[in-house]
Write a structure and sequence with these properties.
By secondary structure, this protein is of the alpha+beta class. The chain is 27% helix and 30% strand. It has seven helices and twelve strands. It has helices at 63-90, 121-131, 142-149, 160-163, 173-178, 185-188, 203-210; strands at residues 2-7, 14-19, 28-33, 36-47, 57-60, 95-101, 107-113, 134-139, 219-222, 225-233, 238-242, 248-252. It starts with a strand and ends with a strand. The mean pLDDT is 90.
Length: 254
Amino acid sequence: MYIVGVKFKNDGKAYNFCSEEAYSKNTKVIVETEKGRQLGVVERVEPSEKYKSLKKILSTATEEEYNKYLRNIKDANKALLDTKELVKKLKLNMNLIDASFSLDKKVLLFNFISDERVDFRELVKELAGRYHTRIELHQIGVRDKAKEIGGIGLCGRVLCCKSCLKTVNSININMVKNQNISLNPTKINGACGRLLCCFTYENDLYEENRKILPKVGEKVPHKSSEAEVKEIDILNKKYVVKTGENTTEEVTLD
């Protein structure tokens, strides 16, 4: 048996399914999900014995199914525009991000963001009557919104969440402090208004090097006496000590 990673969006996460067939990468397949029957693309295939809890791939997508998938995308985009107008009419404090139909059109899913809980029962009632299918509204965070929309980061490159990150790990202010970065919101927050994802990339190395480096202000042995640590270079495992009234010396750890 094989575990097959299937993606439903070009830059989305790959979800695991199982199959007796070793599908080629980029093969279009049909799978059953919690949101109904979907068409996805094979991202990876690997032999494994740990497949018993996974759903099986139903089949390779036919040309007819692929054309239906493309029509569903157009219909979902139209539904998104129409529903945005309905949200305005009902005066709901929510920002719709995208919409998608399941392949069999049994489910119409909307992703939205909001700063508060939204009572969308009237909206669901209106949509169910209009589209005659099950309506699901999923509230997502601002990081998810940035991933959907994309943009350019402070570094001048395409946002990591859009280009290379499949999942976003937990990010906290201690990571910023750990890397000796000024707590300036314009420097440490990304396009989504949250802490930059890249603070996680080197954090393990910073933590490891900090364990062997002294702290700023600490007295350390230096030659035949002691000296006060004035600054540290964590990545390069260096620190500077004050050796006299106006003199300093750099120390590099092996």
